[in-house]
Amino acid sequence: MDCELEVTVKLLLKKAGDSNSFIRQDADKALDSMVQHCTPSQCLHALLAGGLNDRNKAVRNCTAQHVADLVTKIGAARIVSGAKDITDNLIPAIGKLAQDTSPEARLFGRQMLLFLSAEPKFNKVLDKYLATKELATIKKIVNTLRTKGLNNEPVNPRSAIGQRPQPGNGTQKGPSLNRDHYSSRAQTQSVADKNHYIEQLSGLMGSKDFKDRIQGINQIVADSQNYPNVFDAISARLTESNSKVNLHTLMVLPEIICALEENMAQVVNTLVPAIVDSHLNSKNKPIYCAAVRAIDALISNLDNTHLLQLFCNKAMFLNGKAKADLIDKVAAIVTNIGNRKPQMVKQRALPLLWHLLGISTHSSSTHNLCNALYIEMGSELAECAMSQPLNIRQTLNKILSSLP
C-alpha cells in the first residue's frame, strides 16, 4: 500500500473538503486507518504533498489533524533526533501550519510545536531545518506557547473535521483536552485542576466513538510523566472489543513505559494480564508483535523483581505461543536478576520449571528456562529437584545432559 499512498491520500484529502459531511467522515476514517497501519515516513510524505499547500482550508485542516496524529505516533524523541525522511520534512511543515490562516490548521501546528518543544534538542532542530527568515517567527511562537499556552486559541483541534453523530443527540463534538493547560503548567496546577483533567480524560475514554478513545490514549502518552495515576485507564482500552484501539494502545505502551519506568510497578498487576490474556495469543500479527514489544519494554525499564512472579504465574496457565513467549521472558529475567536475587529466583521460577517438566511435551522455551536456571544455580538445580517426582528428575537430567 505504501507505494500507492501519495495518489490515494491526495484524493482522500480532496474529499475532506467535500460539502457532503458523510463523504468527509469516510475520508477521515480512511486517513486514520492509513496513519495507524502504514509506514509513518510514507504517510507523512503523502499528507504533506497532498494537502499542506492546498487552497481549501478544510483540506489543510484535515492534513494538519492527521499530521498531528502521526507526530504522536512517531514520538517527539524520534522526530527531534533527525530521523531521515521525517524530521527534514516535518519541521518545516509544522512551522508552516503554525502560521496558517485557518485557525484549525494553525492550532494543530502550534500543538505540535508545543509537544516537540519539551525535547532538549528541539531548538537545534529548529535552527537546522527552518529557513532563516522563518526561524525568528517560529521561536517567538514557541516562547509564547511555553508561557501562555494555547488558551487563546478558539478552536478545539479535534473538531476541525470528522465530527460524528451521537445517538439521540445529533452531531456533537467529542470531549477535548488542552495540552498546555494539562501538560505545560502541570507543576502549578491545583488538585481541582487535576480532578478536572481526569474527568475530561474519563469522558474521552468512555466515548462511544473509538477515535475519541484513541485521542484519550494519546493524551496519556503526552501527559504520562505529570499524571501517572491516570494510567489505569490504559488497561480498559487493551481489553475492549475494538481492535484499532487495542493496537494503538499497545503501540504507544513502550513510550509510556519508558517515560514512567519504576512508576509502572504500581500498575503491572493490572497491565500484564491485559496484555497477555488478550493479545499475546492473537492471530492478528500487528497486535501480537505490539504486545511482545510492550512486554519487552516492561522488562527493559522496570526492576525485573516486579515481574518475575507475575510472568511465572501466567506462563503456568497459558497455552499456545503466549506460553512459550512468557517462558522465554522468565528465562531472561532469571538471567537479569539471578546474581542479586538468587532466593527469589528459586522460590518463583523453580515451581514453573517443575510444572513444565511434568507435562508430556517440552518446548525449546522449557529448555531455555532450564539452561538459564542451571547457569545461575549450577549443581544446586539438580539438588532442588530431588524433592520432585521421578519423572521430573529424569526429564531434568535429560535436558541438562543435552545442554552445551
In short:
Residues 181-404 form the TOG domain. The chain has 404 residues and is mainly alpha-helical.
The CATH topology label of the largest domain is: Leucine-rich Repeat Variant
> Ranges with pLDDT <50 over ≥5 residues?
151-192
Helical content stands at 55-70%
Main β sheet profile: 2 strands, antiparallel
**Tally of separate domains:** 2
Number of strands: 2
What strand order characterises the main sheet?
1-2
- CATH C-level name of the largest domain: Mainly Alpha
What does the radius of gyration come to? 25 Å
**Average of the residue pLDDT scores:** 81
Tell me the CATH superfamily of the largest domain.
Answer: Leucine-rich Repeat Variant
* Shape by Cα distribution: elongated
Q: Architecture of the largest domain in CATH? A: Alpha Horseshoe
Helix-strand category: mainly alpha
How far is it from the N-terminal to the C-terminal residue, by CA?
Answer: 46 Å
- How many separate helices? 22
Residue fraction in strands: under 5%
* Secondary-structure element order, N to C: HHHHHHHHHEEHHHHHHHHHHHHH
Domain TOG: 181-404
Region (Disordered): 149-190
Pfam families: CLASP_N
Protein name: TOG domain-containing protein
Question: Can you describe what's shown?
Answer:
The chain is mainly α and 404 residues long. It has helices spanning 5-16, 21-37, 40-51, 57-74, 76-80, 87-97, 103-116, 122-129, 132-148, 179-184, 191-205, 210-223, 232-239, 243-260, 268-279, 285-301, 308-317, 320-337, 342-358, 364-377, 380-384, 390-402, and strands spanning 164-166, 170-172. It has a two-stranded antiparallel ribbon with strand order 1-2.
